[in-house]
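Input record (Table S2, row 367):
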Amino acid sequence: MSDGAVARALVLQAPRNLVIREYALPDIGADDALVRVEACGLCGTDHEQYTGELSGGFAFVPGHETVGTIEVIGPQAAARWGVSAGDRVAVEVFQSCRQCANCLSGEYRRCVRHGLADMYGFIPVDRAPGLWGGYAEYQYLAPDSMVLPVAGDLSPDVATLFNPLGAGIRWGVTVPGTKPGDVVAVLGPGIRGLCAAAAAKEAGAGFVLVTGVGPRDGERLALASQFGADLAIDVAVEDPVAALTQHTGGLADVVLDVTAKAPSAFAQAVALARPAGTVVVAGTRGFGSGAPGFSPDVVVVKELRVLGALGVDSTAYRAALDLLVTGRYPFDSLPSRCARLEDAEDLLATMAGERDGLPPVHGVLTP
Ligand SMILES: [Zn+2]
Ligand SMILES: [Zn+2]
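Output record (zinc ion complex):
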């Protein structure tokens, strides 16, 4: 890097207080790197950070779904990560020491050295060099970063789907152990729900139901059939249990609840599961929101497995990037909206439901 070069970054100083600041590009040593951000995917976490629902250590540069090109990389980092300058990579949100028991077992979300404290898109700017997130022209990659190579012909904005599709694969297939022929119900038709439907179909699911609620989900439900869904219904007008039974003659082997701001979905998930079936609850939905209509006795009587899923891992991310490259699902034609740094605030507020317009299925920041 030439001396004196700077990167523009969006800093969230407090809820709804997003400003552009400039940071000096750091000197890169033997074991770290700098990535030029091409696209950063936005998810529910992003607009919850923006509104303050997810309170964080302000101020920080958000952005945890980064895809970009390695600008500078030290020789040790290149050897350890298996990438070189000029390579397009996806940056994982978690860092891994690659040595502690949790990292060695693959549970690097619980890395003893880093854990949840060192997630990209959450680290305060007062820790040098400040460029710890994807809402910036450049993102700093510390020595324990985890990066994934992105195939050259995948566009950066589609490549940011490594994150939601990785989640769909882990939450909809790996965690519940979805098998060929299984009946799978996905509650919530957002980007994660559509990705989970595609992942379940890829795993050989015999029937995939996707549910949403109300007119705001109409466009997403209409898209679901292109992403592996055999049936997509609006639970505001149709009973999902009756609909699933009518189409499959029974209930679901696997139910995945990826709804947002829909506390009553959990009771529906439990109702949709067959006896001895599996229910996965993934992504947080606002602590303390409860689960109206849920009766624990139903879990007992049906002998359900109820599992929580928080993050994603390299295995699922790599499978996601491989699936994106095949082009088997029209991820490149998902209704998406790209914003520059200057326009990010309007996009985040729209995604948070604070503007008149409908939120895009996929929001992307392209610094
Ligand atoms: Zn995210
Ligand atoms: Zn570790």
